[in-house]
Amino acid sequence: MTQNTLLHYFKWAFIVTAFGLVLGAVLGWVNTGTIGGTATVFFICLVLAVLEISLSFDNAIVNANKLKDMTPVWQHRFLTWGIVIAVFGMRIVFPLAIVAIAAHIGPIDALVMAAARPDDYARIMTDAHLPIAAFGGTFLLMVGLTYFFNHEKDVHWIAFIEKRMARIATVKGIEIALVLILVLLFSSLLEGEESVAFVYASIYGLLTFLAVEVLGGLLDYSQETMSAAARGGLGAFIYLEVLDASFSFDGVIGAFALTNNLFIIAIGLGIGAMYVRSMTIMLVEKGTLAEYRYLEHGAFWAIVILSVIMYVQTLFHIPEVITGLAGAGLIGISLLASIRYNRLHPEGEGEQETEEALRRI
């Protein structure tokens, strides 16, 4: 890949990075009036951007997996409208909505609290972590398990597990049963109101996944009578927006470990979200998922791991760096396995799994 090609895909991400870091420095100067304070805010914005990117490698791959089957019109809509919703909706509006609901105040009052009383704002967001983690974890776990529990899936990376999952996928609702078992297990480790909140939030996450699946199918089916330019995209668009929301939960909550300032968080995570968008476009246009056959598997395993981590975080804190490294590590290993497979099958011959080669990774 040439430097010009990278610049083509990441041009807007670089522009937003420069603008965001300058804006963060200005915000730091306004808030502190010192060079040290300005440098601190600048550094926090940079760290938040890296955090978002590390947590969202799998998000970009899953987005690309869905986008490659969408029409160019809906691809463009997701990569324009969708990124606006992702940056402003999930990084600004969503936290404000949580605080407004939890504190029983209006959205304007929540915005004033974020600006004038950031400690109170951060405390409310932290208190809301358990139901958010339960909801997001359940939704993401369904996304991951649905990918592997598919009897038509014939390419397997971790073959001794994935083959068995594909084989028993004919049992209807097997992934739902596994999710409910995990929900009951983790809720039993919590006490009182926390246990009840975990169960309710998990059920809402499960129902949201099922509702999005049904709604997406109905919308895409209804579009079969429409023009080719509008066909087969609205349901996938809604699915990807909810998926992005679930991925963003961890980053938004984890950001409060670095700062209580909503606007600094929005700048840092917004920069990271632009890189996720750029990676998504590159993966779709270059056909990377088809070229590296196990990369998609690594992303979905990362989703499963992330969802379980979100469950575990309802019991005790797990540093975000571990979450990010776990996902990036799985994707990296799957990439190495894909490269190894391509070397062993340069012309694509032989569909049998090279388990011995994979074990050497």
Automatic annotation (TrEMBL):
Protein name: DUF475 domain-containing protein
Transmembrane portions of the chain: 12-30, 36-57, 78-108, 128-149, 169-190, 196-216, 228-247, 253-276, 297-316, 322-339
The entry's keywords: Membrane, Transmembrane, Transmembrane helix
Matching Pfam families: DUF475 (PF04332)
Domain of life from the UniProt record: Bacteria
UniProt feature coiled coil, ranges: none
InterPro entries noted in UniProt: DUF475 (IPR007427)
